Amino acid sequence: MKIRPLNLSDRRQVQEFMHLSFQIYRNIPQWVPPLEMDMRLLLNPKKHPFYRHSEAIFLMAYELERPVGRIAVLDNRRYNDYNHEKTAFFYLFECEENPAAAKALFGAAFGWARGRGLERMAGPKGFTPLDGGGILVEGFEHAPAFGMPYTPRYYVRLLEEAGFLPEHETVSGYLYVETAQFPERVHELAQRVAERRGLRVRTFRRRSELRELVNSLKDLYNSSLEGTSGNFPLSDEDVAGLADMLLLFADPRLIKLVMKGDRVVGFLLAYPDVSKALQKTRGRLFPLGWITFLRELRRTELININGMGLLEEYRGLGGTAILASEIAKSLMSNPRYRKADIVQIGTENDKMQREISNFGVDFCKKHRTYQINL
After folding, report:
1. CA atoms of 47 and 132, how far apart (whole Å)
2. Rounded to whole angstroms, how far apart are CA atoms 362 and 366?
3. Least trusted range by pLDDT, from 47-51, 185-189, 300-304
4. pLDDT over 80 (residue 103)
5. CA–CA separation, 236 vs 61, rounded Å?
6. How far is CA 371 from CA 82, 109, 162, 168, in A?
7. Which residues pair with 138 in a beta bridge?
């Protein structure tokens, strides 16, 4: 078994790193490849904003000169400075069912992190707070929402045999039009709460309006971090990527902001699912993949609800009813939409889980992050 660092200037090695996931998931129909252009950006220190403040190493495992595993290890200084920690993160971990390869990869990852004075490793976690994280531990029969990881069952064993312990879990689930339970009283309650608390829901009609809303989401997210740990503020560069994605995929009618005067106090972020297009094109938009993407945007029956929340001061006293009402309106905004995938709600947020479950959501997928002291 050999572990080699990836030379990011070597196109053949970069392609090998990217191709490994296609090799591992070739017989798993649920897996959805990432957008190739996003993956290439992560592997380009000259263009990705992460490398302006932090560092990463990419490692490949070879057995008899055949690639069998890979991992990225991140020294995220913005995270560590904000949280007063010395934590390394691992990401993009893929490995055949080969414990020796996994242990060798993690051993090399631990060594790199220790050499930088880092004392703990956690993951899978990405380059920005907006990246989907964790490994799948329940719901293997379901495809992931766009941007969310799908991983084989045996990854749990590979991580735990390498010494990792569970850190955090999130759940995702489906809401079907046929079984959704949004009684009229939910909409009535949402209207009363909005009137009583001086709130309004801002909607959008054109994609050109969406770039404006990204800064509002950044400010809302960053203000919600006060007094918390385990996250770090979004930068302008972080949200620029979100803006590009929204302009590429979004249906403006699915994006909602909850306003108190001119202040954003809540949001609902949803977009049409393009997983089938990614599978058909192997994640490539160019030269002709964009035609498949546009076709899928026009006919998909699934929407991904990939972010929702209210500032803490607005969550009680019926505030969640506003989000519930808007989820229903989003799902009903186009007769083609038949279900919504509500993505990654922390299991510690049991109140939101209960409230959303009451509307008929089936939380059938669970992701878990792991950590280890170095």
Report:
1. 21
2. 12
3. 185-189
4. yes
5. 35
6. 19, 13, 11, 9
7. 366
Quote the pTM value: 0.91
Q: How many CA atoms lie within 13 A of 189 on its CB side?
A: 15
Q: How far apart are CA 24 and CA 61, in angstroms?
A: 13
User: What's the one-letter identity of residue 184?
Assistant: E
State how far the alpha carbon of 253 is from the alpha carbons of 205, 206, 328, in Å: 6, 8, 12
Structure tokens at 324: 């519930």
Give me 229's structure tokens. Answer: 């740990």
Give the mean pLDDT of the chain.
Answer: 89
pLDDT in tens, 46-94: 999 999 999 999 999 999 999 999 999 999 999 999 999 999 999 999 9
Cα–Cα distance between 333 and 327 in angstroms, integer?
10
Dihedral (Cα; 346, 350, 352, 356), 10-degree rounding: 100
Given a cut of 80, whether residue 131 has pLDDT beyond it is: yes
Question: How many residues are there in the chain?
Answer: 374
Q: Write down the pLDDT at residue 228.
A: 67
What's the 3-state SS for the chain? CEEEECCCCCHHHHHHHHHHHHHHCCCCCCCCCCCHHHHHHHCCCCCCHHHHCCEEEEEEEEECCEEEEEEEEEECHHHHHHHCCCEEEEEEEEECCCHHHHHHHHHHHHHHHHHCCCCEEEECCCCCCCCCCCEEEECCCCCCCCCCCCCCCCHHHHHHHCCCEEEEEEEEEEEECCCCCCCHHHHHHHHHHHHHHCEEEEECCCHHHHHHHHHHHHHHHHHHCCCCCCCCCCCHHHHHHHHHHHHHHCCHHHCEEEEECCEEEEEEEEEECCHHHHHHHCCCCCCCHHHHHHHHHHHCCEEEEEEEEECHHHCCCCHHHHHHHHHHHHHCCCCCCCEEEEEEEECCCHHHHHHHHCCCCEEEEEEEEEEEEC
Tokens of 266: 């809540």
- Residue 51 — φ and ψ, nearest 5°? -75, -5
Residue with tokens 């939101």, as numbered in its chain? 352
Task: State the Cα–Cα distance between residues 80 and 347, nearest whole angstrom.
Answer: 24
Give dist(CA 342, CA 112) in Å, integer.
36
Smallest CA-to-CA distance from 231 within 35, 369, 323, 72 is with 369
